[in-house]
UniProtKB/TrEMBL annotation:
Organism: Micromonospora craterilacus
Keyword Signal: no
Transmembrane segments: 91-113, 141-161, 170-187, 199-216, 237-255
Protein biosynthesis among keywords: no
Family annotation (Pfam families): DUF998
Lineage: Bacteria, Bacillati, Actinomycetota, Actinomycetes, Micromonosporales
InterPro entries: DUF998 (IPR009339)
Name the UniProt record assigns to this protein: DUF998 domain-containing protein
Coiled coil: none
Keywords, alphabetical: Membrane, Transmembrane, Transmembrane helix
Length: 299
Protein backbone atom coordinates (compact mmCIF):
# COMPACT_ATOMS: atom_id res chain seq x y z
CA UNK A 1 0.00 0.00 0.00
CA UNK A 2 1.27 3.46 -0.93
CA UNK A 3 2.18 5.80 1.94
CA UNK A 4 2.29 8.95 -0.23
CA UNK A 5 -0.34 11.15 -1.86
CA UNK A 6 0.84 13.51 -4.57
CA UNK A 7 4.39 12.94 -3.43
CA UNK A 8 3.68 13.83 0.26
CA UNK A 9 3.46 11.38 3.14
CA UNK A 10 -0.07 10.64 4.34
CA UNK A 11 0.86 11.36 8.01
CA UNK A 12 2.23 14.78 7.09
CA UNK A 13 -1.03 15.62 5.37
CA UNK A 14 -2.89 14.97 8.63
CA UNK A 15 -0.44 16.49 11.16
CA UNK A 16 0.43 19.73 9.37
CA UNK A 17 -3.14 21.12 9.13
CA UNK A 18 -3.72 20.25 12.79
CA UNK A 19 -0.44 21.95 13.72
CA UNK A 20 -1.41 25.07 11.80
CA UNK A 21 -4.82 25.08 13.51
CA UNK A 22 -3.20 24.79 16.97
CA UNK A 23 -0.72 27.56 16.19
CA UNK A 24 -3.52 29.90 15.19
CA UNK A 25 -5.50 29.18 18.37
CA UNK A 26 -2.41 29.70 20.54
CA UNK A 27 -1.58 32.95 18.77
CA UNK A 28 -5.12 34.20 19.29
CA UNK A 29 -4.97 33.27 22.97
CA UNK A 30 -1.69 35.14 23.43
CA UNK A 31 -3.15 38.24 21.78
CA UNK A 32 -6.09 38.12 24.16
CA UNK A 33 -3.72 38.21 27.13
CA UNK A 34 -1.30 40.91 25.99
CA UNK A 35 -3.90 43.14 24.29
CA UNK A 36 -4.62 46.42 26.20
CA UNK A 37 -7.51 45.89 28.56
CA UNK A 38 -9.95 47.92 30.55
CA UNK A 39 -12.48 47.38 33.31
CA UNK A 40 -16.07 48.32 32.55
CA UNK A 41 -19.59 47.73 33.70
CA UNK A 42 -20.34 45.88 30.48
CA UNK A 43 -17.66 43.35 31.38
CA UNK A 44 -19.18 42.69 34.79
CA UNK A 45 -16.00 43.85 36.50
CA UNK A 46 -13.65 41.74 34.30
CA UNK A 47 -11.01 43.02 31.93
CA UNK A 48 -11.39 43.14 28.17
CA UNK A 49 -10.10 45.01 25.08
CA UNK A 50 -10.33 48.79 25.05
CA UNK A 51 -13.49 50.09 23.44
CA UNK A 52 -15.61 46.95 23.61
CA UNK A 53 -16.70 44.29 26.12
CA UNK A 54 -14.29 41.55 27.05
CA UNK A 55 -14.36 38.35 25.00
CA UNK A 56 -16.21 35.30 26.15
CA UNK A 57 -13.60 32.62 26.80
CA UNK A 58 -15.18 29.44 25.50
CA UNK A 59 -11.89 27.53 25.34
CA UNK A 60 -9.26 27.07 28.04
CA UNK A 61 -6.82 29.95 27.96
CA UNK A 62 -3.53 29.87 29.82
CA UNK A 63 -4.04 33.28 31.42
CA UNK A 64 -4.04 32.76 35.21
CA UNK A 65 -3.25 36.43 35.80
CA UNK A 66 -6.40 37.54 33.95
CA UNK A 67 -8.65 35.27 35.96
CA UNK A 68 -6.94 36.26 39.22
CA UNK A 69 -7.54 39.93 38.53
CA UNK A 70 -11.22 39.31 37.93
CA UNK A 71 -11.82 37.13 40.98
CA UNK A 72 -9.47 38.45 43.67
CA UNK A 73 -11.02 41.23 45.79
CA UNK A 74 -8.98 44.38 46.21
CA UNK A 75 -8.13 45.03 49.88
CA UNK A 76 -9.46 48.32 51.20
CA UNK A 77 -7.34 50.09 53.77
CA UNK A 78 -8.68 52.68 56.18
CA UNK A 79 -6.69 55.79 56.90
CA UNK A 80 -5.57 56.09 60.49
CA UNK A 81 -7.34 58.82 62.43
CA UNK A 82 -5.07 61.13 64.35
CA UNK A 83 -6.35 63.21 67.23
CA UNK A 84 -5.17 66.79 67.52
CA UNK A 85 -6.44 67.03 71.07
CA UNK A 86 -3.25 65.69 72.61
CA UNK A 87 -3.58 61.97 72.04
CA UNK A 88 -7.22 61.61 72.93
CA UNK A 89 -8.35 62.03 76.47
CA UNK A 90 -6.24 59.26 77.92
CA UNK A 91 -3.25 61.57 78.22
CA UNK A 92 -2.88 61.67 82.01
CA UNK A 93 0.08 59.32 82.60
CA UNK A 94 0.27 56.94 85.49
CA UNK A 95 3.11 58.81 87.16
CA UNK A 96 0.94 61.94 87.36
CA UNK A 97 -1.78 59.97 89.11
CA UNK A 98 0.80 58.45 91.47
CA UNK A 99 2.11 61.89 92.44
CA UNK A 100 -1.44 63.11 93.04
CA UNK A 101 -2.03 60.13 95.36
CA UNK A 102 1.22 60.73 97.23
CA UNK A 103 0.53 64.43 97.92
CA UNK A 104 -2.17 64.07 100.63
CA UNK A 105 -0.38 61.07 102.11
CA UNK A 106 2.79 63.10 102.62
CA UNK A 107 0.89 66.03 104.08
CA UNK A 108 -1.34 64.14 106.51
CA UNK A 109 1.41 61.68 107.38
CA UNK A 110 3.82 64.53 108.06
CA UNK A 111 1.61 66.44 110.46
CA UNK A 112 0.46 63.23 112.19
CA UNK A 113 3.94 61.83 112.78
CA UNK A 114 5.38 65.26 113.54
CA UNK A 115 2.76 65.93 116.21
CA UNK A 116 3.32 62.50 117.74
CA UNK A 117 7.04 63.26 118.14
CA UNK A 118 6.54 66.47 120.11
CA UNK A 119 7.22 66.06 123.84
CA UNK A 120 4.17 66.67 126.01
CA UNK A 121 1.84 66.29 123.02
CA UNK A 122 0.80 68.74 120.34
CA UNK A 123 -2.65 70.28 119.97
CA UNK A 124 -3.49 70.13 116.27
CA UNK A 125 -6.58 72.28 116.77
CA UNK A 126 -4.64 75.33 117.87
CA UNK A 127 -1.13 74.53 116.58
CA UNK A 128 -0.26 75.24 112.94
CA UNK A 129 1.44 72.92 110.51
CA UNK A 130 4.38 75.28 110.22
CA UNK A 131 5.03 74.97 113.96
CA UNK A 132 5.91 71.30 113.46
CA UNK A 133 8.66 72.31 110.99
CA UNK A 134 9.81 75.40 112.90
CA UNK A 135 13.35 75.81 114.14
CA UNK A 136 13.61 74.16 117.54
CA UNK A 137 10.75 71.68 117.03
CA UNK A 138 11.46 68.04 117.86
CA UNK A 139 12.20 66.02 114.74
CA UNK A 140 11.28 68.96 112.54
CA UNK A 141 12.65 67.06 109.55
CA UNK A 142 9.46 64.97 109.46
CA UNK A 143 7.19 67.91 108.67
CA UNK A 144 9.84 69.55 106.51
CA UNK A 145 10.12 66.41 104.41
CA UNK A 146 6.33 66.20 104.19
CA UNK A 147 6.04 69.81 102.94
CA UNK A 148 8.87 69.38 100.44
CA UNK A 149 7.36 66.16 99.11
CA UNK A 150 3.94 67.82 98.86
CA UNK A 151 5.32 70.69 96.79
CA UNK A 152 7.24 68.36 94.51
CA UNK A 153 4.15 66.20 93.96
CA UNK A 154 2.11 69.25 92.93
CA UNK A 155 4.76 70.18 90.34
CA UNK A 156 4.83 66.65 88.93
CA UNK A 157 1.04 66.42 88.80
CA UNK A 158 0.84 69.76 87.00
CA UNK A 159 3.19 68.42 84.33
CA UNK A 160 0.98 65.37 83.80
CA UNK A 161 -2.46 67.02 83.56
CA UNK A 162 -2.08 67.48 79.81
CA UNK A 163 -5.75 67.90 78.85
CA UNK A 164 -6.04 71.05 80.99
CA UNK A 165 -5.20 74.60 80.02
CA UNK A 166 -1.56 75.64 80.47
CA UNK A 167 -2.57 78.53 82.75
CA UNK A 168 -4.22 76.23 85.27
CA UNK A 169 -1.33 73.80 85.23
CA UNK A 170 1.15 76.64 85.68
CA UNK A 171 -0.77 77.94 88.69
CA UNK A 172 -0.78 74.45 90.22
CA UNK A 173 2.98 74.23 89.71
CA UNK A 174 3.34 77.68 91.29
CA UNK A 175 1.49 76.40 94.34
CA UNK A 176 3.89 73.48 94.49
CA UNK A 177 6.91 75.77 94.34
CA UNK A 178 5.37 77.95 97.06
CA UNK A 179 5.04 74.86 99.25
CA UNK A 180 8.69 74.04 98.62
CA UNK A 181 9.55 77.59 99.72
CA UNK A 182 7.52 77.09 102.92
CA UNK A 183 9.72 74.11 103.73
CA UNK A 184 12.88 76.01 102.79
CA UNK A 185 12.06 79.04 105.00
CA UNK A 186 10.86 77.64 108.34
CA UNK A 187 9.51 79.70 111.23
CA UNK A 188 12.08 80.74 113.82
CA UNK A 189 12.01 79.27 117.31
CA UNK A 190 9.64 80.85 119.80
CA UNK A 191 6.69 83.01 118.80
CA UNK A 192 8.51 85.05 116.18
CA UNK A 193 7.39 85.27 112.56
CA UNK A 194 9.18 85.06 109.22
CA UNK A 195 8.38 87.28 106.26
CA UNK A 196 9.70 84.83 103.61
CA UNK A 197 7.76 82.01 105.25
CA UNK A 198 4.56 84.06 105.34
CA UNK A 199 4.89 85.17 101.70
CA UNK A 200 5.60 81.62 100.55
CA UNK A 201 2.58 80.32 102.46
CA UNK A 202 0.35 83.03 100.96
CA UNK A 203 1.49 82.17 97.42
CA UNK A 204 1.02 78.45 98.03
CA UNK A 205 -2.47 78.71 99.54
CA UNK A 206 -3.66 81.21 96.92
CA UNK A 207 -2.33 79.37 93.88
CA UNK A 208 -3.52 75.96 95.04
CA UNK A 209 -7.02 77.36 95.57
CA UNK A 210 -7.33 79.29 92.29
CA UNK A 211 -5.76 76.90 89.76
CA UNK A 212 -9.03 75.05 88.94
CA UNK A 213 -10.59 78.32 87.71
CA UNK A 214 -7.97 78.47 84.93
CA UNK A 215 -7.90 74.74 84.21
CA UNK A 216 -10.69 74.25 81.59
CA UNK A 217 -9.22 74.09 78.08
CA UNK A 218 -10.47 76.52 75.46
CA UNK A 219 -9.55 74.59 72.31
CA UNK A 220 -11.94 71.95 70.99
CA UNK A 221 -10.77 68.59 69.66
CA UNK A 222 -10.91 68.75 65.86
CA UNK A 223 -10.49 65.12 64.80
CA UNK A 224 -10.23 61.67 66.26
CA UNK A 225 -11.59 60.26 69.47
CA UNK A 226 -11.57 62.76 72.34
CA UNK A 227 -13.23 60.66 75.02
CA UNK A 228 -16.54 61.24 76.85
CA UNK A 229 -14.97 63.80 79.21
CA UNK A 230 -14.21 66.27 76.43
CA UNK A 231 -17.62 67.95 76.79
CA UNK A 232 -17.61 68.94 80.42
CA UNK A 233 -13.88 69.65 80.45
CA UNK A 234 -14.61 72.90 78.59
CA UNK A 235 -17.43 73.92 80.95
CA UNK A 236 -16.28 76.53 83.41
CA UNK A 237 -19.00 75.96 86.01
CA UNK A 238 -17.57 72.75 87.58
CA UNK A 239 -14.09 74.24 87.71
CA UNK A 240 -15.27 77.49 89.26
CA UNK A 241 -17.26 75.52 91.83
CA UNK A 242 -14.13 73.56 92.73
CA UNK A 243 -12.15 76.78 93.11
CA UNK A 244 -14.83 78.28 95.35
CA UNK A 245 -14.85 75.12 97.44
CA UNK A 246 -11.10 75.49 97.94
CA UNK A 247 -11.26 79.20 98.70
CA UNK A 248 -13.78 78.83 101.52
CA UNK A 249 -11.48 76.92 103.95
CA UNK A 250 -8.60 79.21 102.97
CA UNK A 251 -10.73 82.21 103.90
CA UNK A 252 -11.59 80.55 107.20
CA UNK A 253 -7.89 80.02 107.90
CA UNK A 254 -7.11 83.67 107.12
CA UNK A 255 -9.86 84.86 109.46
CA UNK A 256 -8.60 82.61 112.24
CA UNK A 257 -5.05 83.85 111.73
CA UNK A 258 -6.09 87.50 111.75
CA UNK A 259 -8.31 87.13 114.82
CA UNK A 260 -5.93 84.87 116.71
CA UNK A 261 -8.61 82.22 116.98
CA UNK A 262 -8.31 78.98 118.85
CA UNK A 263 -9.01 76.86 115.76
CA UNK A 264 -6.31 78.18 113.50
CA UNK A 265 -4.62 74.77 113.34
CA UNK A 266 -7.86 73.04 112.38
CA UNK A 267 -8.66 75.64 109.72
CA UNK A 268 -5.18 75.33 108.24
CA UNK A 269 -5.42 71.55 108.08
CA UNK A 270 -8.83 71.66 106.42
CA UNK A 271 -7.60 74.15 103.81
CA UNK A 272 -4.30 72.37 103.14
CA UNK A 273 -5.96 68.95 103.03
CA UNK A 274 -8.59 70.10 100.53
CA UNK A 275 -5.94 71.65 98.29
CA UNK A 276 -3.89 68.45 98.42
CA UNK A 277 -6.89 66.32 97.43
CA UNK A 278 -8.06 68.52 94.51
CA UNK A 279 -5.34 67.45 92.02
CA UNK A 280 -6.03 63.81 92.88
CA UNK A 281 -9.75 64.32 92.21
CA UNK A 282 -9.03 65.90 88.83
CA UNK A 283 -6.42 63.34 87.75
CA UNK A 284 -8.59 60.39 88.75
CA UNK A 285 -11.60 61.89 86.97
CA UNK A 286 -9.66 62.35 83.75
CA UNK A 287 -8.27 58.82 83.84
CA UNK A 288 -11.63 57.25 84.58
CA UNK A 289 -13.68 59.40 82.23
CA UNK A 290 -11.42 58.83 79.24
CA UNK A 291 -12.13 55.08 79.05
CA UNK A 292 -10.50 52.76 76.52
CA UNK A 293 -9.93 54.08 73.00
CA UNK A 294 -12.21 52.71 70.25
CA UNK A 295 -11.17 49.70 68.19
CA UNK A 296 -8.68 50.44 65.47
CA UNK A 297 -7.31 53.53 67.14
CA UNK A 298 -3.52 53.81 67.22
CA UNK A 299 -3.04 57.17 68.97
Amino acid sequence: MSTKINGRPILAGIVEPYRDWCSGRLRASILKVIRPTRVGADNHGCEGPIGRPGPELRTPVFAPDLRARCLTPVPVTRARRVSTYGAGMRVVPGWALASAVAAPILLVGGWTLGAARQPGGFDQITGTISALAAVGATDRWIMTLGLAGLGLCHCVTAAGLRPLAPAGRALLALGGMGTLAVAAFPLPSGDGGSVPHTLAAAVAFGALALWPALAPPRAKPTTGYAGPTAGYLRRRAPWVALAVGLLLPVAWFVVEMAAGGERVGLAERVAAGAEALAPLLVAAGLRRGAGPPPAGRRD
